[in-house]
Amino acid sequence: MKVLLAKIGLDGHDRGVKAVRDALINAGIDIVYIGLHKTPEEIVEAAIKEKVDVIGISSMTGAHIVIFTRVFELLKEKGIKPPVFAGGIVPDEDIVILKEMGVKAIFQPGTELDEIVESVKALAKR
Amino acid sequence: MDGKEYKPKLTNLSNIEIKQVYTPEHVKDIDYAKEIGVPGEFPFTRGIYPTMYRGRLWTMRQFAGFGTPEDTNRRFKYLLEHGETGLSTAFDMPTLMGYDSDSPRALGEVGVCGVAIDTIDDMDALFEGIPLDKVTVSMTINAPAAILFAMYIGIAEKRGISLDKIGGTIQNDMLKEYIAQKEWIFPPAPSLRLITDTIEYSARNLPKWHPVSISGYHIREAGSTAVQELAFTLYDGLTYVEEAVQRGLNIDEFAPRLSFFFNAHNDFFEEIAKYRAARRIWAKEIKKRYSPKDPKSMALRFHTQTAGCSLTAPQPHNNIARVALQAMAAVLGGTQSLHTDSMDETYAIPTEEAVRIALRTQQIIAHESGVANTVDPLGGSYYVEALTKNMEEGAYAYFKKLDEMGGIVSAIEKGFPQKEIKDAAYAYQKEIDGKERIIVGLNEFVTEEKRSIKVFKIDEDTAKRQIQRVKDVKKKRDEKRLQKAMGDLKKAAASNDNLMPFLIEVVKAYGTLGEICDSLKSVFGVYEEPIV
Questions:
Q1: Where are the alpha helices (DSSP H) in B159-247?
Q2: In the prediction, which pLDDT does B208 show?
Q3: Do A15 and B425 touch (CB under 8 A)?
Q4: Angle, helix B145-158 to helix B513-524, in steps of 10 degrees
Q5: How many domains is chain B built from?
Q6: Owning domain of residue B277
Q7: Is residue B401 part of a domain?
Q8: Residue B258 and which of A68, B195, B296, B516 are 20 to 30 A apart at CA?
């Protein structure tokens, strides 16, 4: 299985996404990490090019609603449906909105790395 | 008593092993006069002033910013009314990255994590009714710092305030951006040139201004240990000093205006030792390298912020206690100014109530606890002095590695500090996951609870209102004057001239932040990160 990880938004808080990346790599999962400051367009383009099974997006800036809406629009346009998970600063009330949008799992600060690894493995199997 | 302890090995957050008890044996190699000394004198281990808080309390400076300039102006006035003594500005992500509010890259981020500033008019509105010659203003801005500095100078001139009366700080520390905070525009060489331009310009025109706030805060937030925070930050600082000296500035012309910015994390004594070690190392290194005449050139001043990354989302009220302990460490470590985090910051920008509690925490430490009554009350503690020495040795070990790599820029290009920090962050997370470190309410003493605090929301119209402002400014400006100023700036960027006068002219001609950054990008190029 292959997982794309990206950090959206203009901020540089990549501590979380890198810890998740390293935990997934240590669990034997193939990771494509495309780095910081990525736009929805760049993320979806990379997902197609790398033929990934799952997309993980880290968000810290509070722009998640606008940005995830755009990600799902683009996925639909391109006709691909990889499961998408999110991590970062997402208030509880926005979790409901993101899940309705189609985000399969959302990891808030304080989630154990092992829990994230297990969830991502399960997502890939679906 | 069987002498058994509950854990085989206790360590602080830098993984330094802590002994059962500290005695004169552990400090016997520390020469009091040479290494510790008197407060206000070299090597300043005990503090940079002889009287410290007996002379003047630290500045209570809460970081604030959101929405449009008017929104933040109201929050500033609220904080000043409640006894805050200095301002600190948070800018939104597009501003930090040099994009205007109407750029497609700014989608969803205008005014969200800070205030949006596009033009000099925004800067004017941000500080409307605030006396720039009386309140000092700190601005957390880095890649486009010189441009915002130019806007600030522009509004001071407009208000008829003489530049030598203006006190304040721009963070303007790009090395820690490449290392940790990661909001960059230009590559390291032109970034260092811009920073040196601001140092030179303020040394000659704004003698009360702090042109760089050399920051460990973000390095720590990215997951470094205390030792790494100390080492990388001081090494960055020495790099800026060397650049300025190479430019031809005398050390005493600018070094007294450099300041630092450190984190206050959970391990109380480790943090105190870190601040004390920072002062000692800085004083020794500046003295050794540049032989300054002014003792102020060797005195390390610093701002502290409590550790945002230490706050927990569950049981948010516990954060008040966490912040109080961290803030007390900063005070016992001799900080010059302090921001205390609000309990709700893992969710969003703090509410007014949460900010007020955070500010009150500082006031309680200042006026009730008695810790500010004497200078460096922990000086001479076997434990604190031994730890201070440990921190110093740890930092020097990193200095040696960085020297061997050919300096910090070359180490950054190799990804060295980035990797050290990433590995430390991962190890720390594993310790928490494995309950080797207990975080109350997070991995122990967990309770099922519904969130019990209100969360701050940004007005949904913010982006629309801000985009309209940029459009209005673009309509009213004199295009000819702007084109001329922008052309001159680009020419100057390609030469060795100091860019500050050119930037001041462009912002006065209503060039936007995004337009100026685009012009400079065409000369300087953009930074590409080595991913580690």
A1: 174-176, 188-205, 217-221, 226-247
A2: 96
A3: yes
A4: 140
A5: 1
A6: 24-433
A7: yes
A8: B516
Q: How many CB atoms lie within 10 A of CB B427?
A: 13
Look at residue B90 and tell me if it is in a domain.
Answer: yes
Which element (helix H / strand E) includes B480?
helix B479-494
Domain count, chain A: 1
Instruction: Answer yes or no: is B491 within a domain.
Output: no
Closest CA to B222 of B179, B158, B267: B179
3-class SS string, B416-449: HHHHHHHHHHHHHHHHHHCCCCCCECCCECCCCC
B181 interaction partners in chain A (CB closer than 8 Å): 12
Measured CA to CA, the distance from residue B343 to residue B523 in angstroms comes to: 44
Could you give the CA distance from residue A105 to residue A116 in angstroms, rounded to a whole number?
A: 9
> Under an 8 A CB cutoff, do A15 and B309 touch?
yes
Q: What local confidence, expressed as pLDDT, does residue B1 receive?
A: 54
pTM for this predicted structure: 0.94
Domain CATH number, residue B356: 3.20.20.240
CATH of the domain at A69: 3.40.50.280
What angle do helix axes A15-26 and B416-433 make, rounded to 10 degrees? Answer: 70
pLDDT value, residue A27? 96
Q: What is the pLDDT of residue B451?
A: 67
In order of A61, B97, B287, B291, B447, the CA distances from A11 in angstroms are 7, 8, 37, 40, 32
Q: Is the ipTM of this complex over 0.90?
A: no
Cα within 13 Å of Cα(B394), Cβ side: 24
In a 3-state reduction of DSSP, which class is residue B47?
Answer: coil
Interface contact A63-B107, CB threshold 8 A:
yes
The residues on B that touch A, with CB distances below 8 Å, are 93-94, 96-97, 99, 105-109, 112-113, 177, 180-184, 221-223, 309, 312-314, 346-348, 422, 425-426, 429-430, 433, 442, 451, 455, 458, 529, 531
The answer to whether residue B492 sits within a structural domain is no
Q: Which domain holds residue A30?
A: 2-125
Average of pLDDT values for A58-71? 89
Average pLDDT, 10 consecutive residues per value, chain B (532 residues): 75 92 97 96 98 95 92 94 90 96 92 95 97 94 98 97 96 98 97 98 97 98 98 98 98 98 98 98 98 98 97 94 98 97 89 94 98 97 98 98 98 97 95 94 89 73 94 96 98 98 98 98 96 86
Distance CA B532, CA B526 (A): 19
